[in-house]
TrEMBL record:
<dbReference type="Pfam" id="PF03275">
    <property type="entry name" value="GLF"/>
</dbReference>
<keyword id="KW-0413">Isomerase</keyword>
<keyword id="KW-0285">Flavoprotein</keyword>
<protein>
    <submittedName>
        <fullName>UDP-galactopyranose mutase</fullName>
        <ecNumber>5.4.99.9</ecNumber>
    </submittedName>
</protein>
<comment type="similarity">
    <text>Belongs to the UDP-galactopyranose/dTDP-fucopyranose mutase family.</text>
</comment>
<dbReference type="InterPro" id="IPR004379">
    <property type="entry name" value="UDP-GALP_mutase"/>
</dbReference>
<keyword id="KW-0274">FAD</keyword>
<dbReference type="GO" id="GO:0008767">
    <property type="term" value="F:UDP-galactopyranose mutase activity"/>
</dbReference>
<feature type="domain" description="UDP-galactopyranose mutase C-terminal">
    <location>
        <begin position="153"/>
        <end position="357"/>
    </location>
</feature>
<dbReference type="InterPro" id="IPR015899">
    <property type="entry name" value="UDP-GalPyranose_mutase_C"/>
</dbReference>
<dbReference type="Pfam" id="PF13450">
    <property type="entry name" value="NAD_binding_8"/>
</dbReference>
Length: 389
């Protein structure tokens, strides 16, 4: 019975939860929030492992970071953050290096002490094959940034494992996410704000969604409900956009990850939270050890939880995690976007709904923007929630 529902939100990840929270608190409208999974939180969901008590992010390591003060202040209404700062190391041929590539990585790799200027000159020399050329793909972009030897050691194998796509067919923006530094700064992110939620990720969602006007239905698939919805009910859809149109314009390429979880009888397996494996001879891309995300907690010291990540291209039954975004994907996506513009009652949002590689802060930021530009005008002026403007 949808008689009291003012807005249907499909997907209880950060995009859907932010919209639901704003609509209930700011507009006093009734929201029905559904998710086909049996939990809220989307891919940011985490749980405390029953055997060890260690918080495990079920869908891979989630590090919160943002340059956006508005998003930071918004989320701080629902959680405090620890002062965790992410650092990553990468194993290549049985040696451990700092990742992202910094002066330490470069000096260690070339086995000599280098000043920042010397390192810049060395890399410029090694990137000479790209001089004066505009990088047309991920491989060329990486070589222009770090030269061929470092690319082949740390990027090519890892990227091939992670994307199962030739780096020459990948968009260059994937690699620009990773900074290259001519200092010894080994922080993974450059953003002003960074930390992990003190009580875990799921608690954020519980607090955001605790409102008498928000009704949550879990284990409910939108497509088994669609034909029963009242005509004109406004919908926020954060599922895969190709699925919404029944794949009629073709299937968009996604990458999924198989997470292999293991509890080990040691208090410390690898000494830090994330170890990347650069070599193609090792089938997984990285190992996560969750206890290290929360050094402030007094976890037991007899056991530890590790997760190995294996990446592969997604089939329809798999969880779609990362848009691959090849040229073909871009063309297909444009056709879906045109069709989405004809859906006046449906607003498409989030990582899956817009086929975009969004971090959590970007998903929240985009939802806050859509609230102002689409949802408020809908409820106050009667304008369409979706469709073309
Ligand atoms: P999601 O969280 O994916 O939520 C969408 C929800 O819609 C899902 O719960 C899904 O079950 C539901 N849904 C889909 N179809 C239907 C349907 N038909 N009916 C009902 N419900 C449906 N971001 C960071 O900022 N830092 C990180 O370190 C980070 N690491 C990541 C690691 C991995 C492995 C992955 C996959 C993502 C990572 N992210 C990270 C990104 C982060 O997960 C996303 O930014 C965030 O989840 C986006 O929120 P969303 O609401 O758009 O999508
Ligand atoms: N990357 C790499 N080697 C590494 C880490 C990252 O080649 O050790 C590349 C890889 O293509 C990856 C991209 O850089 O997809 C962005 O890295 P990030 O850690 O942001 O990727 P995510 O884990 O979020 O997919």
């Amino acid at each position: 019975n949808f008689a009291d529902v003012d807005l249907l939100v499909v997907g209880a990840g950060f995009y859907g939860a932010t919209i639901a929270e704003r609509v209930a608190n700011e507009l006093q409208k009734n929201v029905l929030l559904i998710d086909r999974r049996n939990h809220i939180g989307g891919n940011a969901y985490s749980e405390f492992d029953s055997e060890t008590g260690i918080e495990v992010h079920r869908y891979g390591a989630h590090l919160f970071h943002t340059p956006n003060e508005l998003v930071w202040n918004y989320l701080n209404q629902f959680t405090a953050f620890t002062d965790y700062k992410h650092r990553v190391y990468s194993t290549h041929r049985d040696q451990v290096y700092s990742m992202p590539i910094n002066l330490g990585t470069i000096s260690q790799f070339f086995n000599r002490r280098l000043s920042p200027d010397q390192a810049r000159a060395l890399i410029a020399d090694q990137a000479a094959e790209m001089a004066g050329r505009h990088p047309a793909n991920m491989e060329e972009k990486a070589i222009s940034l770090i030269g061929r030897p470092l690319y082949e050691a740390f990027i090519r194998g890892y990227t091939a494992k992670q994307w199962q796509t030739d780096p020459r067919d990948l968009p260059e923006h994937i690699i620009t996410r990773l900074p290259v530094r001519y200092t010894f700064d080994n922080r993974y992110f450059n953003d002003k704000y960074e930390g992990l939620p003190v009580d875990g990720y799921t608690a954020i969602f519980e607090r955001m969604l605790k409102h008498s006007r928000i009704q949550i239905a879990l284990g409910v698939d939108f497509f088994s409900l669609k034909s029963t919805l009242p005509a004109g009910l406004p919908i926020i859809y954060t599922g895969p956009i190709d699925r919404y149109f029944d794949y009629s314009e073709g299937e968009l390429g996604w990458r999924t990850i198989d997470f292999e979880k293991e509890t080990l009888n040691t208090g410390d397996f690898q000494g830090m939270a994330v170890m990347n494996y650069a070599d193609e001879t090792i089938p997984y891309t990285r190992i996560l050890e969750f206890r290290h995300f929360n050094p402030e907690r007094s976890y037991q010291t007899e056991k530890t939880v590790v997760v190995r990540e294996y990446s592969r291209s997604a089939k329809r039954v798999d969880e779609p995690y990362y848009p691959i975004d090849t040229r073909r994907d871009k063309e297909i996506f444009l056709r879906y976007r045109e069709r989405a513009e004809a859906e006046a009652n449906v607003h498409f949002g989030g990582r899956l709904g817009t086929y975009r590689y969004l971090d959590m802060h970007q998903a929240i930021g985009a939802a806050l923007k859509a609230f102002d530009s689409r949802i408020v005008p809908h409820f106050t002026e009667g304008r369409a929630i979706g469709g073309e403007r």
